[in-house]
């Protein structure tokens, strides 16, 4: 699935975050950066969202680093759009994590909400269109099949 633009942005963010944590540079920031964890379902969102919150603080920490180039490759508008698109996914994860037992009356509306978020709008950037198409493919997989 073609999702290069969002993947490239995420790669730049991931590289900066892992470097800053490894070199303990994040102590100069107002909060800690979060490294991406493949074992956490919403790990990409958490990493991107915290990076977005600290975006304006990062140049002063990266100024004498080769990672300032990575920072300059991160398009702030696209970062904001990706985080905004992923917020409902985080909300669904939170909602489904609240209860020990799921019931069909909770799952179907949440699934429909996520499907609607994948609808492509005429003002979406190319990166968001690619990401929505990618996320839209997930709905056709067996993710919610036990409930539908």
What would you say about this model in short?
With 148 residues, this protein is mainly alpha-helical.
Q: Which helices and strands appear, and what pairs or packs with what?
A:
Blueprint: H1 4-22, H2 43-53, H3 58-62, H4 68-73, H5 76-98, H6 104-117, H7 126-139
Helix pairs in contact: 1-2, 2-5, 5-6, 5-7
Describe the 3D structure.
- The chain has 148 residues and is mainly alpha-helical.
- It has one domain.
- Helices cover 62% and strands 0% of the residues.
- It has seven helices and no strands.
- The protein has helices at residues 4-22, 43-53, 58-62, 68-73, 76-98, 104-117, 126-139.
- Helix 1 packs across helix 2 (43-53), helix 2 (43-53) packs across helix 5 (76-98) and helix 5 (76-98) packs antiparallel against helix 6 (104-117).
- The longest helix has 23 residues, at 76-98.
- The radius of gyration is 17 Å and the shape is globular.
In the residues, how many domains can be counted?
Answer: 1
Percentage of residues assigned to helices: 55-70%
- Estimate the global geometry from the Cα principal axes: globular
Spans with pLDDT under 50 lasting ≥5 residues? 142-148
Largest sheet: number of strands, sense, barrel closure: none
Number of strands: 0
Range of strand content:
under 5%
* Strand/helix succession: HHHHHHH
Question: How large, in whole angstroms, is the Cα Rg?
Answer: 17 Å
> Which class of secondary structure composition applies to the elements?
mainly alpha
Separation, N- and C-terminal Cα atoms: 25 Å
Estimate the mean pLDDT confidence.
86
How many helices? The count is: 7
